[in-house]
Amino acid sequence: MRLPVEPSHVAPRLATGAFILNSGLAKRGADEQTAAMLHGMAKTAYPFLGKVRPATFVRLLSASETALGAALLLPLVPTAVAGVGLTAFSAGLVGLYLRTPGMREEGSLRPTQEGTALAKDTWMLGVGVGFVVDAVTRRCR
Questions:
Q1: What are the tens digits of pLDDT across the range 92-140?
Q2: CA-to-CA distance for 60 and 66, rounded, in angstroms?
Q3: What is the pLDDT of residues 3-27, one digit of tens each?
Q4: Is 58 helix (H, G, I), strand (E, B) or coil?
Q5: Quick count: other Cβ atoms within 10 Å of Cβ 74?
Q6: What is the Cβ-side half-sphere exposure of residue 107, based on CA atoms within 13 angstroms?
Q7: Where are the transmembrane segments (predicted)?
Q8: 94, 100 in Cβ contact below 8 A?
């Protein structure tokens, strides 16, 4: 049986999967203050999240990150599927960076010192898009 993972996908899947899995597991036991801070930042960028309680938001975020990280690490999950999840998740993070005041220098995409932590998530968007494009082009051949 051949696994649905190309050898060239192993390193980026391991790097992004471990990073996201660790982030999700770290949020599992978030206290009220941490939940409020994460929720506050998210609802500033995505106002519809204001309807969700902070504790519920962090619990869902933790579960989502844990599931995505595991999907990237498990070679049984096709790279195309993991890539779509990674692209969607990281696009949300890049949107958070772009929509949160103070994260970018005025009139620029360049991050402020505070924004660097979010701006770095663009690498995950690049990896996810690369996985999807690779899957589509392989299928077209």
A1: 999 999 999 999 999 999 999 999 988 889 999 999 999 999 999 988 8
A2: 10
A3: 778 889 999 999 999 999 999 999 9
A4: helix
A5: 13
A6: 0
A7: 67-98
A8: no
Contact between residue 92 and residue 18 where contact means Cβ atoms under 8 Å apart: no
Amino acid at 17: G
Left if phi > 0, otherwise alpha if psi is -120 to 50, otherwise beta: which for 87?
A: alpha
In the block, residue with structure tokens 């938001």: 57
Tokens standing for residue 2: 């051949």
CA distance 91 to 78: 20
43-50 CB contacts, 8 Å cutoff, 24+ apart: 44/99, 44/100, 44/101, 45/95, 45/96, 45/98, 45/99, 45/100, 46/92, 46/95, 46/96, 46/99
